[in-house]
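Support request, priority: normal
Reporter: lab tech (M.K.)
Component: structure prediction queue

Hi team, I submitted a job for ribose-5-phosphate isomerase from Trapa incisa yesterday, and the status page still shows it as pending. I've pasted the exact input below so you can check whether something in the sequence is tripping the parser. The sequence length should be 270 residues. Please let me know if I need to resubmit or if it's stuck on your end.
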Amino acid sequence: MAIPYPRFVGSEQPAMEAARMGTPPSAQSTPPVNLTQEELKKIAAYKAVEYVKSGMVIGLGTGSTAKHAVDRIGELLRLGELRDIVGIPTSKKTHEQAVSLGIPLSDLDSHPVLHLAIDGADEVDPRLNLVKGRGGSLLREKMIEGACEKFIVIVDDSKLVKFLGGSGLAVPVEIVPFCWKNTALRLREMFRDSGCVAKLRTCGEEAEPFVTDNGNYIIDLYFEKDIGDLQAASDAILRIPCVAEHGMFLDMATTVIVAGKKGVEVIHKK
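Reply from support: The job had stalled in the queue. We restarted it manually and it finished. Here are the results:
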């Protein structure tokens, strides 16, 4: 459902304005204009946090959009509007952020089932399938978000695509470092008909391999065409022995919150 600014269904205060100001303000009679992508991310994140209730165990996502949600949860805890929250971070970076905000943390061993998780996504298709992991945390994200009763995804409208890989940006695959060139070759050949290019993710001036929190490498796949049956593609990738996980999150999101220039759209899984 589309929700025009400045009113938001399910919120007593405008999520957009709270996101812009950092604290819940009074409603404005006219909506802001020329919102930046960062402001849109913040709006979606603040809207998602409205689903968080005291006493919940929640998955804390990783990335530029999820960061705003973690900040907001920390703020509400500090104000006393949320209590007895336990967070399960999806990366070392999010762990550090949550600790700095005073969010109590635990792990999947202590809490094998979570009430909900909030995270961003790099792509969202019409069936609410996702591409995630361009920040490098896809394995831990999938472990934690796959253990949630509800998985709320927060994006700005630039992340909406007709098919996964449709943005022309990477679909990541986390692999063990051993013989990574062979794994990259197998992935490229697997999707040859889709015009696949497979590249090792690197970082720094020396172009050293990017290393995940799990000590693995990432092969980024770029597609010229739709890869077709996503579940078949997922199964085929995971059959390669050196693959730890891929960044296609299929049939996992229960709600997607999209912030755009004209408002916030809340899309629930059918």
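DSSP finds seven helices and 16 strands in the chain. Confidence is low (pLDDT under 50) at residues 1-14, 23-31. Let us know if anything else looks off. Ticket resolved.
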